Structure to design on (547 residues):
């Protein structure tokens, strides 16, 4: 939202929907529909607009104010739940401003109880937080054996933080952290109603003394995954085929069910399967007329490893999905400069493990092992996570090192694309990406691939062109291309694309000075059709020559 020209210019640099003018009216109209507002307006003016709209911090959107000069990004309200603190940091990173976060826990560098990844906080969160701000350390009691502690150190109390999935009576001075430790297995007949399932599910939890906030998902048989009775529970759904369910040993198999759906158990088997290795049933099957519920408790949290590409440089070229993956991680692992590249996404208590360059296998194994222990881990690389980076070694090792860990790969803008964008459109037609690092790939193989690219007239983006110890490879590669391309073929050397030290050199195959390339240079060599057009390097796609 902006009101002035200067404000509009700042807003234009942010990747959000932008409205100019009528700030007050727009905020009033959109208040309930929008997750958060970034307002290019003084805090005083903004307070006057939002004050009558505020309800409670669990529902209000976050509000961030940015001053006319773009020097400050102030998290005004909705710091945690509304996401304003994180948003202020992101806006500050994008504008080169300073984030102003006044939430007490953030200011003293303690993690906020209601922001701890992997837990939902209930109970006397405010009271315990106040005690922590006053310098007292609550005692942490984990009622779930084997469950990892939250990112806090336990102290003498008297306040307590209870980690449990059981129903707890509200007591002043006791905050409750709910882990996602339970999985509900649900089976139902085709005529079961959403209401039947909801009531039976709630009753089952109440009778067992377990809290709904700890139920991570429902598990069922494939044919019921879309059934309203299952969907209505409002939880993530995981479903399995009859054969998979039939293979699980359960306490109460049923011949009737087996004949009807091909597995002697749906609820118990699905709950156990979805809850993973070491899980056990805490509520065995409870059947009403048409709904069956069982509850399994996980032995540990489901580990998750996100292999994240951070893009070439600043946060404006990082995807929102990459931001989320890093912000939700308990542990961030990466080569030191990449950790710095994601510095603005860190939170107090997040563990950051720098690892030396070159030790990719060790780094991947370490990330998988951390995740297998039940943590949420982000393994960060620059550019794209799968291009000459960590994703492939993680996929290779995961089945051996950590078969139960959920691995996801979050893409990023790779160096070739970043570099290409800075010089024009040299990769506008078919092209190859080739790494010149012969540390793990024999030079003969690299050479063969360059020859193939040369012969097939592909534009080429060379990664890892040169380092202190590898000085001849780029010359050798260019010599191969020179056999097939004219000396006038455009070449670009782009170093540190989208970083503060960015350098772009336009040259040709005949005139390139290869010592200008370094560890962070991407070298783009055109094909036979690549040419310069008003200072831009471009490879035509043939639009203008096609009939
Ligand atoms: N996963 C990364 C590549 C890592 S290999 C990606 O997808 O971009 C390291 C090589 O990438 C460097 O030697 C350099 O050739 C290239 N590179 C990485 N970041 C770069 C940047 N900001 N500008 C230019 N080249 C870069």
């Amino acid at each position: 939202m902006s009101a002035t020209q200067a404000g509009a210019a700042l807003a234009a640099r942010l990747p959000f929907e932008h409205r100019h003018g009528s700030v007050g009216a727009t905020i009033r109209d959109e208040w309930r529909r929008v997750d958060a507002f970034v307002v290019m307006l003084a805090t005083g003016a903004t307070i006057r607009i939002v004050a009558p709209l505020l309800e409670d911090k669990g529902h209000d959107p976050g509000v961030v104010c940015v001053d006319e000069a773009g020097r400050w990004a102030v998290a005004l309200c909705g710091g945690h739940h509304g996401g304003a603190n994180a948003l202020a940091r992101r806006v500050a990173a994008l504008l080169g401003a300073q984030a102003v976060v006044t939430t007490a826990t953030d200011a003293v560098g303690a993690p906020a109880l209601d922001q701890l990844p992997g837990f939902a906080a209930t109970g006397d969160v405010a009271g315990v937080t106040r005690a922590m701000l006053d310098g007292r350390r609550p005692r942490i009691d984990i009622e779930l054996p084997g469950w990892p502690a939250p990112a806090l150190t336990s102290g003498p109390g008297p306040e307590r933080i209870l980690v449990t999935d059981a129903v707890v009576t509200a007591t002043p001075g006791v905050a409750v952290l709910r882990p996602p430790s339970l999985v509900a297995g649900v089976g139902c007949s085709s005529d079961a109603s959403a209401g039947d399932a909801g009531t039976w599910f709630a009753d089952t939890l109440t009778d067992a003394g377990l809290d709904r906030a700890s139920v991570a998902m429902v598990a069922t048989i494939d044919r019921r995954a879309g059934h309203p009775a299952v969907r209505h529970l409002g939880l993530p759904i995981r479903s399995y085929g009859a054969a998979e369910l039939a293979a699980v040993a359960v306490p109460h198999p049923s011949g009737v069910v087996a004949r009807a759906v091909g597995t002697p158990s749906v609820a118990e088997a699905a709950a156990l399967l979805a809850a993973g290795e070491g899980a056990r049933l805490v509520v065995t099957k409870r059947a009403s007329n048409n709904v069956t519920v069982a509850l399994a408790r996980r032995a540990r949290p489901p580990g998750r490893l996100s292999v994240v590409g951070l893009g070439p440089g600043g946060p404006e070229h990082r995807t929102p999905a990459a931001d989320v993956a890093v912000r939700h991680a308990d542990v961030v692992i990466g080569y030191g400069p990449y950790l710095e590249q994601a510095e603005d996404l860190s939170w107090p208590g997040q563990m950051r493990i720098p690892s030396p360059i070159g030790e990719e296998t060790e780094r991947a194994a370490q990330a998988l092992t951390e995740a297998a222990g039940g943590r949420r881990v982000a393994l960060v690389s620059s550019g794209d996570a799968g291009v000459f980076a960590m994703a492939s070694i993680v996929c290779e090792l995961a089945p051996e090192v950590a078969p139960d860990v959920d691995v996801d790969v979050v893409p990023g803008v790779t160096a070739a694309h970043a570099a290409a964008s800075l010089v024009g459109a040299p990769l506008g037609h078919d092209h190859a990406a080739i790494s010149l690092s012969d540390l793990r790939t024999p030079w003969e193989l690299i050479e063969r691939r360059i020859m193939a690219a040369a012969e097939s007239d592909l534009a080429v983006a060379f990664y890892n062109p040169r380092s202190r110890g590898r000085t001849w490879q780029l010359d050798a590669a260019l010599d191969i291309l020179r056999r097939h391309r004219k000396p006038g073929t455009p070449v670009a050397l782009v170093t540190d694309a989208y970083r503060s030290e960015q350098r772009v050199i336009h040259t040709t195959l005949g005139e390139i000075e290869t010592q200008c390339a370094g560890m962070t240079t991407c070298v783009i060599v055109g094909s036979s059709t690549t040419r310069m057009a008003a200072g831009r390097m471009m490879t035509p796609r043939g639009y203008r020559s096609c009939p």
